[in-house]
Amino acid sequence: MRTKDEGKINRIYQATVDLVMQVGIAGATIPKIAKKAGMASGTLYIYFENKEDLLRQLYLHLKSEMVSVTFGALDKSAPFKLQMFQLWKEFLAMAVEKYPERIFLEQYKISPFYDEQVMEASIGWVKQAEDFLEEGKNQLLVKDIQKDLVYSMMYGFLNELAVQHRRGLFHLNDHRIGDSFGLLWDAIKA
Amino acid sequence: MRTKDEGKINRIYQATVDLVMQVGIAGATIPKIAKKAGMASGTLYIYFENKEDLLRQLYLHLKSEMVSVTFGALDKSAPFKLQMFQLWKEFLAMAVEKYPERIFLEQYKISPFYDEQVMEASIGWVKQAEDFLEEGKNQLLVKDIQKDLVYSMMYGFLNELAVQHRRGLFHLNDHRIGDSFGLLWDAIKA
Amino acid sequence: MRTKDEGKINRIYQATVDLVMQVGIAGATIPKIAKKAGMASGTLYIYFENKEDLLRQLYLHLKSEMVSVTFGALDKSAPFKLQMFQLWKEFLAMAVEKYPERIFLEQYKISPFYDEQVMEASIGWVKQAEDFLEEGKNQLLVKDIQKDLVYSMMYGFLNELAVQHRRGLFHLNDHRIGDSFGLLWDAIKA
Amino acid sequence: MRTKDEGKINRIYQATVDLVMQVGIAGATIPKIAKKAGMASGTLYIYFENKEDLLRQLYLHLKSEMVSVTFGALDKSAPFKLQMFQLWKEFLAMAVEKYPERIFLEQYKISPFYDEQVMEASIGWVKQAEDFLEEGKNQLLVKDIQKDLVYSMMYGFLNELAVQHRRGLFHLNDHRIGDSFGLLWDAIKA
DNA sequence: GATGAATGAGGCTTCATTCAT
DNA sequence: TATGAATGAAGCCTCATTCAT
């Protein structure tokens, strides 16, 4: 028996991400996804229970991937502020390189498919971010303030920059990376 | 002849906003909107050309309403930082009281319905915000930094707080309003 | 009490005829007819029971008008062949000048609105044509052949010329009027 | 996978033709066609792009079928007048046996669906008829007259006979076939 | 009489999903 | 496993008709 083809799942994922970027999550229909992935629509149902399942799996996959990419590259031995700068650069780089994926994540979160269950399964990211900030607090580098506020600020800022970038209104370069980090750091530094 | 009822437009708007919050913009179908608004689906087409038109009108309506509510309450004779605090409170209050409307605005912006034309018609808000920040710069209170970065930070932060609030993860009180403004002010102050 | 406005009926008739020519009988909707006639759609229902009634009345109106126009102009004292030529010219002229009306008649006849009842009410034309041909037979100028065949030939020929004319494939001039009559006369002459 | 069933196309064609005869082209809706053809309405869209496409394909199909049936049976070695009689008989037979199809063709031609493109794709018939008449002219058997007039006469006559037949007003038998051909031949003979 | 807002049935089409091959 | 034909529910929109003004 041939095993389920891992490559096919990736083609489905890629097709979905691309399509959502082009036409939004509502326009990403099964026939279109299948066509873009180069297979019959029925085949999708071999790999996923239904559309909801496909989107959920993709969401969780991307979410975990992004967390590991950004936090994974962190040099934990470096000074905190440097680590933070590193993290910020990673985030911004991701917003540029992987913005189709970001778009998908954003769209999914506000779609009818996103439910409590998925939300709970995806808090790993928040946890990592909060742990990281905790370390900053311990070193008296970060304000003693509720973590969720700091997190909201970082995440919202990042997200908006990604949106602006997608619209061609935000051009990334070293200077602007530095400036944006300046804003961020001044906000949270103790 | 029954006269065209202005109140009906508001019922349609309200129904749309509520529905988008519940099921997303993709799930807000014409039949559902009509039912929620208590009228036949055909009636919608007396007031709006089609679904796209309805969403666009609603978007522009809410956008302008929000701009005028927030900036309108501003006491222009007050010191800059105080004005800013006032603005931030207004924004947060709006995010709490009108979060269904905010959700609609966010969803619409990333939907296939949002196009260049609408974007251009809605830059009033950005203009107002940038003008306000310019004043801060002139008084040497705000960093001399690209305005769009500051704007992105404010808007993104605000947006994320609204999202958190919707999920019941963010509880607004004077203390937290003060803390969040603290983050914001430290970020941008000169 | 104002009496029903005869002029309005004519505006409705004219609008319907024009519209049917432009978009076919299926595309001639009540809202469009009303708009073209310069009145509200509800007004149509003051003058006609419903759409079916409007079309039937218009059909009967045009049919009788055409019969009286063509046969009415006939000089009954002239020699038969001359009368026939006259008639043919009248028919062709009508096909050119009133082709929107012809189109309506043709479309109506094959629409779901055309029923037995209307058919029977509109045989006046056939009767007149057959009476006329009878006279030709009596003068031994027309073949002694079933009248319906002759009628079918004349009517069908005429109709097809009208269709060709509408498509710009048939250009009417004295020469071609003469030629077509030549065909017709040779067909039926004794 | 279920293979695309060619027979299904024929069932769709047949259902459409029957329905158009019963309720006109405006009354032949997709749901009704599908029901008559014994399938779900969505299935139609596997075989045809949309309603317009279905009608166009059917038109071209019937047109070419009719041309090949009538002209195909022609014995080109026979004398011209005999060939012509043969042709006329074929036409009339077709008008009787396939009058639902004829109705469809006529209705389609005056519907909004009929456009330049379809017209050009269907001139094969006219060409064949004109070529045939040309041969008659060359043999000095047919009047030297514009071909389109002769064509219009034949086609219009035939068409009207078909209409009469549909209404039960025209009964086909050898005698009447002969008489009608007599009219036709006398009209065009040199 | 005249208006046109209001209705909801029904048309065309697409979609998620199933299942024969 | 893979295919894509088949399904019918559901979406958007228009229409004929009614009726409050």
From TrEMBL, chains A, B, C, D:
Keyword Magnesium: no
GO molecular function terms attached to this record: DNA binding
SUPFAM superfamilies (alphabetical): Homeodomain-like
UniProt-listed InterPro entries: Homeodomain-like_sf, HTH-type_Tx_Regulator, HTH_TetR, TetR-like_HI_0893_C
DNA bind region: 29-48
Domain HTH tetR-type, chain residue ranges per copy: 6-66
Domain of life (superkingdom): Bacteria
Keyword set, alphabetical order: DNA-binding
This protein's name: TetR family transcriptional regulator
Species: Persicobacter diffluens
